[in-house]
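Ticket #267: bound-state structure for SN-glycerol-3-phosphate.
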Amino acid sequence: TGESRPPPEPVSTWNIAHRGASAYAPESTLPAFEWGARMGSDFIELDVQMTRDGHLVALHDKQVDRTTDGRGPIHRYTLSQLKKLDAAAWFGQKHPRRWKSSFRGATVPTLEEVFQRLGNRIGYCLEIKKSSAGPQLERKLLQLLKQHRLVETSESQRVLIQSFDSDSLRRIHRKAPDLPLIQLIHFKNIGSLSHRRLKRTKEYADGIGLSYRRINRKRIHRAHRHGLRILAYTVNRKPVMRRLVRWKVDGICTNYPDRLHQVLQQT
Ligand code: G3P
Ligand code: CA
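RESOLUTION: The complex was predicted; output attached.
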């Protein structure tokens, strides 16, 4: 299927703000996403999770402990319980010099809030975690994307869905074949990235996402020969960004979208 649909060449390496501009603002909150947009990102990256009462929210960890003042797994919280948690204060404690009063009161945002706030100012790179993946979450996500007119072909470039879970991506591909999907490949499972593996990936995905430590020229060339984009996560140092841009990687996920923006302007 995918074989007949090579991905269009991006004009330049995509700048993808990892959990928003997460070096500068509390990760996965509206301020972090706003900063990502202001710092010249093409996409904001976020991890999708579901509350006990079925709302989709942006949160990286399975537990709320690290990035909020709450305790326990996200799936035990209803949205109204979750909304009572503070998702910014930890950042002020950890990075007092980066604290801004505008962060105060930030909560775990629903995807709905993110789409409403940022609209089509920016693209969305949405990750479905293996642990939270499941047909129910996928169904709700597709429904929400449709409501916000983010799955229409002309606009499909505005949304990427990525996951380490190939079953989840295959299910999404069956339901929304035009939605660009990125198969994330774990640092430890890189194996040989054989032609056979890439051919199978191309059946449902438009690209692969690898740790930058696993990316070299040969792998970029190999992915491109299969019509797959190749995205690098998570790159925070300019020399590495420069090298990857020179090698024509298709996208870079970073906590410092401003640094990547500068690198891209210089090349
Ligand atoms: O872009 C891939 C990257 O987001 C995967 O790592 O742990 O930050 O979700 P993680
Ligand atoms: Ca992620």
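RESOLUTION NOTES: The first helix runs from residue 30 to 38.
TICKET STATUS: resolved
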